[in-house]
Give the backbone structure.
Amino acid sequence: MESNAGSNVIAFLHLCIVILFVNQVQATNSSGTFGGCPLSSLPHNPQHVYSYAGRPIESTKMDQIVPLDDIAMIRCRHVGLFKQNGGDTFNCTSEGWSGNVTCTDTNHVTNYTSESLPPAIVWHVAGGGVSVVAAGGQLVLLPGAIVHLDCLFPRLAGNPAWSWTPEYRRYPTGWSLSSSERDLHYRLSVYYARQHDSGTFTCTAPSALTNSITILVKELRCAELVVARSVPESALPAVVFGRRQTRGDDRVIVAGSGTTMGSSRFFTCFDGYVLNGPQQMTCLPSGLWSAAVPPACEVVRCPALPPLPPLVRLRHLSLTAGGVALFACPLSYALTAAPSIVCLTNGTWSAPVPHCKEVVCPAPESPEHGSVSTAALRRVGDVAVYSCDEAFVLQGPRIVTCTNAGTWSKPKPNCVISCQSPGNPRNGRVSPRLLRYRLEAQLLVSCSPGYRPAGPDRLKCLRTGKWSAPLPPCVPVIAG
Ligand SMILES: *[C@@H]1O[C@H](CO)[C@@H](O)[C@H](O)[C@H]1NC(C)=O
Ligand SMILES: *[C@@H]1O[C@H](CO)[C@@H](O)[C@H](O)[C@H]1NC(C)=O
Ligand SMILES: *[C@@H]1O[C@H](CO)[C@@H](O)[C@H](O)[C@H]1NC(C)=O
Ligand SMILES: *[C@@H]1O[C@H](CO)[C@@H](O)[C@H](O)[C@H]1NC(C)=O
Ligand SMILES: *[C@@H]1O[C@H](CO)[C@@H](O)[C@H](O)[C@H]1NC(C)=O
């Protein structure tokens, strides 16, 4: 069973407008014909908590008009810390709202020292029992609860006294025994509350100033709460990283159980869905759940995309949580960021829409002992042409092209040292016959018939730019 035990203040509402106490309110209709009393015209006071038709009025519509002779309930926000006078209702009369309820200060505003203010009363319910404050300020207990009412009064200034209206038993009273409380807490305890314990309990200070708490003991249940399209949280596997990753499931996850007064339900949705309605519902002393309509889970939607930047094309779009928007650019243009953005489970896009930027290749580097020339901008399809200094030859491509990826089609060539053609020997020739020979290139000397090379007939181009041997002359073959 959910419990509010230990909490002295159960605040269902937060009225934010601060106006001083108003005892009598008149809301007449200036046009003459009376049509009821609007809830919004109840006297505003931060200490007042209003209920209408069994529920705190903030969970109903504030613009609601209450019919003639109907009543709104009122209690002080901090029951016991304020003294409630003048009953617990405002009546809708033909003159407007009528009621004399006030919430006046107790000695809690002076840290319990003042003897000219009534004593404050705080309570706590022991051992997991349930207490809820009713719409009129009564403390409602389930049968069996143990409740301690503490009248706060400085012990040095004398002894207060408890009195009560229930007649069938006496209640133990006395200074609290705990060391932190025994100088201030004058206690009355109700053990194992029964219906007969319902009544008003009054603390009278030596100054004769009083404060009271009214207790109502009743077996109270709300109707079974039916939430459409829901799943009990206990039926789900444990959550690993704090979020439920079940896309496509719009069921409401319901935590909590029980239908006795004070029982609560807590509502959440699966990832990608958002709760429409209350996050929590509690069984009120009125026997009603705190909200009239349970919530539903609705799929999270991201806002429509802003107008696309120039040239950007949309290739795919899904506005629901987890969906993506996929973009593309025309040929020779590239996106400035990732091609897709995701609709996050909080309803925002993971990133802004990217732009299209013309693809350009980086300026190519000149090889050592060489140079390169390109167009100024180096767009897709543009070429870079390499050349080498005198006495060097290209090793690698002479021409490279700027590709769609913004890179050159081939790696940059090197300029390597070369050997000059040694020319042909008389009565012979070299092959291959070139102007310049690259490093490691070989050259074969062959002589005309009747002649032979006087030396090695294979020459190799060395790193020094020189041939491995001088060109051999072709000499006549002497017939043996
Ligand atoms: C006041 O009277 C007018 C005209 O009879 C009616 O339309 C309107 O609802 C009334 N307003 C309230 C607050 O009762
Ligand atoms: C409010 O109206 C009800 C019913 O008409 C009546 O019993 C009750 O005494 C009235 N309360 C006040 C504070 O006028
Ligand atoms: C408020 O108090 C006045 C004077 O004590 C009394 O005449 C009037 O009936 C009370 N009004 C209500 C609504 O109780
Ligand atoms: C209230 O009184 C207590 C006990 O005497 C003291 O510890 C605390 O500081 C006081 N607080 C204020 C705000 O005066
Ligand atoms: C949505 O979630 C993302 C990632 O978790 C976060 O960076 C962003 O700030 C959130 N936006 C809003 C409006 O909550």
Remarks:
- The first strand starts at residue 37 and ends at 38.
- Confidence is low (pLDDT under 50) at residues 1-33.
- DSSP finds no helices and 40 strands in the chain.
